[in-house]
Amino acid sequence: MSLLQIAEPNQSAQPHQHRFGLGIDLGTTRSLVAVVRSGKAQVLEAATTTDTLLPSVVYYPSTGNPLVGYDALTHLADDPKNTIVSAKRFMGRSQADIKFSHPYELSGHKDDMPTFVTAQGEVSPVEVSARILAALEERATSALPIDSVEGAVITVPAYFDEAQRQATKDAAQAAGINVLRLLNEPTAAAVAYGLDKPAEDSVNSETKENYYLIYDLGGGTFDVSILKLNDGVFEVLATGGNSALGGDDIDRLVTNWLIKQANVDPKDVSPHDKSILAQQAKVYKQTLTDAKQVDIDIVVNEQSYQGVLRHEDLFAIANPVSRRTLSVCEQVLRDAKLSSTDLDEVILVGGSTRMPVIQDVVAEFFNKQPLCRLNPDEVVALGAAQTAHQLISGDSDDHLLLLDVTPLSLGLETMGGLVEVLIPRNTPIPVKKRQVFTTYQDGQTGMVVHVVQGERETVENCRSLGRFELYGIPPMKAGFARIEVTFSIDANGQLTVSAQETTTKTESQIEIVPSYGLSDEQKEQLLTAGFKHAEEDKNARSLIETKVEAEREVLALQSALNEFAALLTSEEQQSLAKYIQALQTALETDDLSVIEREQASLKPHSDAFAARIMNQSVKASMAGTSAQDW
């Protein structure tokens, strides 16, 4: 008797041929790739070195092919302008947003994502990232069976906006990688730590809500997220961060400290010498991970200097960076409506959290020893690999449901320049929200849908994401048309906005893909300005809404007078016109009390007019109808 080979749905027709999903941590300073094999997530090592971390560096020589990783890193000191590091900091951002220090010559319009001017011509941050991703995929395909890789889950900082996420997907596409999902780095870390699995000694742990804070400080980005686990649902309650803050900043601070110790002004040091000193500063910083002090020996502008760098010195040097991270933690705790005592655990992620000065600051701030039992460099890639495995196989040993959130509120512009929020910040994604709007003027056959992002009440204080037009609205009286607007965010954080007129089903939509991302200053302003100006915005919104409503009332009365003036005597028409004029005059001011007073004065007259119109309509509809018909 022969056996018939079968396969489960979504599985390979040949069971011995496995399909793999990669987990890629595209880091600012170092990147790596992981995969699940034999049920366990593991980081894939390079063929020529036991070090699993690939430096996120690409070198563009005057001749020959670009070099990636360690081969590129060797050229950083002697040719910094052609050795691109921390390209992630430039992803999805305009040239005007690039305010941090760097040695590169940038090209392009100030409102567009810049390109690096290299010996091989201009290259974009997307192209640089694509080469890094291609090197990681090559590492994976060399270690796995031929044609077994189905795609990859690529991690991004939780605070990446739409433009930065889109730039990451573009880089993957350029590298020939099928993106299964973009996953927030803190969420990936939570998956790796298995936070969905209750402690064995906990009582009724399946019904207990657990709160975790993920503190992710990498080489060039910082993210912090608060996660809640309840009955198998793993939800991101709040998130925050800074896409241009990390260990690189501490390296620069240490470099400047070293230069000043040599009695030299950092401005007088060449980029070449600074690059060499930065490498030394990083070594000294890493040495202090296990030592209390380190001897320093540097050359600044051809002058030698020897000294000592102590743990206390590094604590003071890194203080500006560590304090900035803690201010973000404070804001995220407020957003989640929690205190530090509500947290079950604080988890450290990112290579920079190896530093004792960071661990000490975090422990002191939260009054809790943070968790760092997993390699902080690898934990994000491991979590991404587990997620990719679940997406590829459709098989999971646990019941974890991941709910990421959108970091900023999304809405559209309404009359008076007000923002109508459809998706508030920290809403779990994927999400779809609908809301019905109507026309402002009689006979209106089109409208512009203006999509905005931010925390303020007025459009001028928020960021514009895009506009599109909807035509084909049937000409009706103001307020009768029904336009359904839908905001949809997928699992990758991609926003799509559509509008449909419900009678004719006329529809239009836009996929929001901005050409550049938010600067650090803009992000901070959008997040904090809403709190700072809350009372002011509330009063401004009240005034605008009152004026818009009054203007609509005036338009409606003027339209009614044109059609039903015969229902009023000449004296009544003059009296109504007088009150309408008084309200119009009040609308020219910004005095809310005056506008409300004139509205109240007009109301008895407009109500009486509306009652006569209604009576006439009822009489007309009842004409020729007998009681027997009822």
UniProtKB/TrEMBL annotation:
<dbReference type="InterPro" id="IPR029047">
    <property type="entry name" value="HSP70_peptide-bd_sf"/>
</dbReference>
<dbReference type="InterPro" id="IPR029048">
    <property type="entry name" value="HSP70_C_sf"/>
</dbReference>
<dbReference type="GO" id="GO:0016787">
    <property type="term" value="F:hydrolase activity"/>
</dbReference>
<keyword id="KW-0378">Hydrolase</keyword>
<keyword id="KW-0143">Chaperone</keyword>
<dbReference type="InterPro" id="IPR043129">
    <property type="entry name" value="ATPase_NBD"/>
</dbReference>
<dbReference type="InterPro" id="IPR018181">
    <property type="entry name" value="Heat_shock_70_CS"/>
</dbReference>
<comment type="similarity">
    <text>Belongs to the heat shock protein 70 family.</text>
</comment>
<feature type="coiled-coil region">
    <location>
        <begin position="533"/>
        <end position="560"/>
    </location>
</feature>
<dbReference type="InterPro" id="IPR010236">
    <property type="entry name" value="ISC_FeS_clus_asmbl_HscA"/>
</dbReference>
<keyword id="KW-0175">Coiled coil</keyword>
<dbReference type="InterPro" id="IPR013126">
    <property type="entry name" value="Hsp_70_fam"/>
</dbReference>
<keyword id="KW-0067">ATP-binding</keyword>
<keyword id="KW-0547">Nucleotide-binding</keyword>
<protein>
    <recommendedName>
        <fullName>Chaperone protein HscA homolog</fullName>
    </recommendedName>
</protein>
<dbReference type="Pfam" id="PF00012">
    <property type="entry name" value="HSP70"/>
</dbReference>
<comment type="function">
    <text>Chaperone involved in the maturation of iron-sulfur cluster-containing proteins. Has a low intrinsic ATPase activity which is markedly stimulated by HscB.</text>
</comment>
